[in-house]
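W.,

You were right to be curious about this one. When I first looked at the sequence I had no strong expectations either way, so I just let the prediction run and decided to look at it fresh. Below is the sequence, 324 residues in total, followed by the output.
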Amino acid sequence: MKKIIISRTDAIGDLMLITPLIKELKQGVPGASVSVLAGCYAKDVLLNNPDVEEVIEFSGKKELAPEIKKRAFDISICVYPDFRAAMLFKKSGVPERVGTAYRWFSFLAFNKMVKMHRKHSEMHEADYNLMLARHLIGERKASHLYYYMTEEEEQKGLEYVRSKGIRGDFICVQPWSGGSSWNASEKKYSETGAAAAEAGFSVIFTAGGSERAGLGNIRDYAGQKQGLYYMDEDLSIRELAAVIKHSSAFISSSTGPMHIAAALGVRTLTFFPPDRVKAVRWERWKPVGNDCAAIKPGENSKSEKDFEKMPVQEIIAKLKELIA
């Protein structure tokens, strides 16, 4: 049996994008046991995943080498090139250590190096992740992301939606993200939600943690309109996912909950930069496995401020086309 550990220690969306790799390793390597080293904020998206043996929490502060060594992993795959995680696997004595070939620490940490440059964004991030294991699973492309929700979670998500007074179909609008990609302003999201409500949609503005402080601004911009609702409560990422599960569409920037929505089969309409901004372009970070569409400014756009110039009715037209 091969004992494999994958490290992806950054954000929620990034962790979601290794779920095809987990699935392929579990199915493609006979008797494989797959564990994941993940950040404490993101790790819960892997709960209930039947292909994951164990999730080990990584904060960069706790000494984990004895724990990793005790588990006697055969292979480590350092998906996110974090120096601390890479050297952790070497210090722990993992025999085969896989990583990209072009980091300054690659020759120090890895003994199986894969030649690839993500910065060119020539393929999807999930496919770059799969490339790191092609010596184990062959050439693969990601067609789905995987998120496993319990019946209890799903029911509680529905109960939450009903507690807000929403009875029919609704749309989730998530105005905030971690700042890793271009995003529209709170005002633009407010206008979009208000226009969707005027078009007959029920809309809930979703938020988590510190993001809830911005809901006051959303209310001020959107005004008092029938069909607008607000996630005032401090829901966990899994509770938020259970709400998204029941929605007809999810509007956001390129953010972790967008990838969760895709995994749940929920339609996504996403603010993205023009393709010339390669590091965060659509082809690399778009949702996988669901019906989706992008809201992009012109190709010559210089910043996310250009989202403000887009007519709201153009966005609503995209939403209607997506849901039709």
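Here's what jumped out at me. The longest helix spans residues 151-163. And, maybe more interesting for your project: The mean pLDDT is 95.

Coffee later to discuss?

I.
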